[in-house]
Write a structure and sequence with these properties.
The complex is a heterodimer of chains A (220) and B (227). Chain A is mostly helical and 220 residues long. Helix content of chain A is 67%, strand content 0%. Chain A contains five helices and no strands. In chain B, helix 3 links the parallel strand 1 and strand 2. The chains are: A mainly alpha (220), B alpha/beta (227).
């Protein structure tokens, strides 16, 4: 057998290392950007994750209403004839805070595209503050709600859904913090703001999921 | 269907659409729970209908190539497996007869949808590159000034990409015969005629038979040596 085997016809030649050579240019499909595919697949997995929690919630609701001859929702606190109280007003205020943070996020991205650095930094700081306020408000809500996960299936699914969303807000805040630091360091420009765009998409997704969670858990 | 999270701006718009969608359901449910359900059904049906109709209402823009220097004819050839077919070569030789002609051959890197989505296109591009090189060699041997490039897996997209740099007078699409051609099944020739404002010539290459046929595609006229 020869030490220098001939490459098989039809297969690309193996790349031989050379300090003066650069790797071949990356070919991207002209229709689908890999970053967009990445965020699309990621959000798809997130939708499935939330979907499983919503399935549990609705299953509990349907089973509960049938097993107790059409009992109201939220169910009675065990041993009493008093329904659980959902803090819908506090959650509504929190919803307004989160929706406002989407607005400031969009303002920051638009400012970056226009080269308005002051607007970008202000928008990022405001988004970060509003997101933190949302999370802290939810912590306060958990403290005052008077139930815990071991009470009933309703309580477990309530904390499961809202807690899952809170985890996403926390991750979103971490991303926002990194984006804010980068914004202050001047990493984003009208030509290059991909990191801002992807982070913004994630934050809006978190916002959309909260609206679904709020309407499902607190209102309907 | 377009991804509602394709950009930050689109995602922001989707936030407001979500608010509007759920606000109407909540208002309906506050009046009567069955009304809330009805609003949910109607809204969901409207959204589905809107997405279904959107494709019909937004035809692709008809694109025209740019101008090029006078005194020469430019042909844009799009072909994949048939790129080295004798019928295509004979047709190009006939079109180039007596007129200074430049030919750009675009060979779409056909790929499976899954591989395309994950940008695993190396094998498809290598395969297209081999066919292209063989074809270019045959054309140059026949005295045709030809250059080539690997295009997008979607032939229409590949044509659109090439229009940006080449400015052809005529488009030549080479396919397998009816019944064996995926491109004909997908109406690539008809769609190209509708989408691009230049004459389209369809060359049928039967790799299993000896002779090929030049089909008279819509608007396939002889545009002359220059514009």
């Amino acid at each position: 057998m020869s030490a220098h085997a001939e490459p098989h016809p039809g297969h690309p030649q193996p790349h031989r290392g050379n300090a003066n050579e650069h790797p071949p240019p990356i070919y991207y499909s002209s229709r689908i950007n890999p970053g967009i595919v990445g965020i699309f697949l990621f959000l798809g997995s997130e939708v499935m994750l939330f979907g499983s929690f919503f399935t549990v919630y609705f299953f509990d609701r349907v089973v509960n209403s049938h097993s107790h001859g059409g009992s109201p929702w939220p169910p009675y606190i065990p041993g009493t004839h008093t329904q659980y109280e959902r803090p819908w007003f506090l959650a509504l205020v929190n919803t307004c805070i989160l929706v406002t943070s989407s607005f400031t996020m969009h303002w920051a991205t638009t400012s970056a595209k226009r080269g308005n650095r002051a607007g970008l930094c202000s928008g990022m700081v405001l988004t970060l503050l509003l997101g933190t306020t949302f999370l802290l408000t939810q912590v306060v809500e958990y403290h005052r709600i008077g139930i815990n996960t071991s009470n009933t299936a309703f309580a477990a699914t309530f904390f499961g859904l809202t807690g899952l969303h809170a985890c996403h807000v926390f991750i979103g805040l971490t991303i926002l913090l990194a984006m804010t630091i980068r914004a202050f360091r001047g990493h984003f420009s009208p030509e290059s703001h991909h990191g801002l765009e992807i982070g913004g998409i994630y934050w809006h997704f978190v916002d959309v999921m909260w609206i679904v969670v709020y309407v499902t858990v607190y209102v309907l | 269907m377009q991804n509602p999270f394709r950009s930050e701006q689109a995602a922001f718009r989707f936030v407001w659409l979500t608010i509007g969608y759920f606000a109407l359901i909540v208002i309906g449910a506050a009046i009567d729970r069955w009304l809330g359900l009805a609003v949910f059904v109607v809204e969901t049906a409207l959204v589905a209908w809107w997405f279904a109709r959107r494709g019909d209402r937004e035809p692709p823009l008809r694109q025209a190539p740019g101008e090029h220097a006078a005194g020469e004819r430019r042909l844009l050839v799009v072909a994949n497996e048939t790129v080295a077919g004798p019928e295509l070569l004979a047709e190009l030789r006939r079109l180039a007869e007596g007129v200074p002609t430049r030919v750009l051959v675009v060979c779409p890197a056909l790929n499976s949808p899954l591989r395309h989505w994950v940008s695993d296109e190396d094998a498809a591009r290598a395969s297209a590159s081999e066919r292209l090189e063989a074809s270019l060699g045959a054309m140059r041997a026949a005295g045709i000034a030809a250059s080539g490039e690997i295009g997008d897996g979607d032939p229409l997209q590949a044509i659109e990409d090439a229009l940006r740099t080449f400015a052809p007078d005529e488009l030549v699409i080479s396919t397998h015969p009816e019944g064996r051609s995926h491109w004909l099944e997908r109406d690539v020739v008809t769609n190209a005629t509708e989408r691009f404002a230049l004459p389209v010539r369809h060359v049928v290459v039967d790799l299993d038979a000896a002779g090929g046929v030049v089909a008279p595609a819509a608007a396939a006229t002889d545009p002359g040596p220059s514009r």
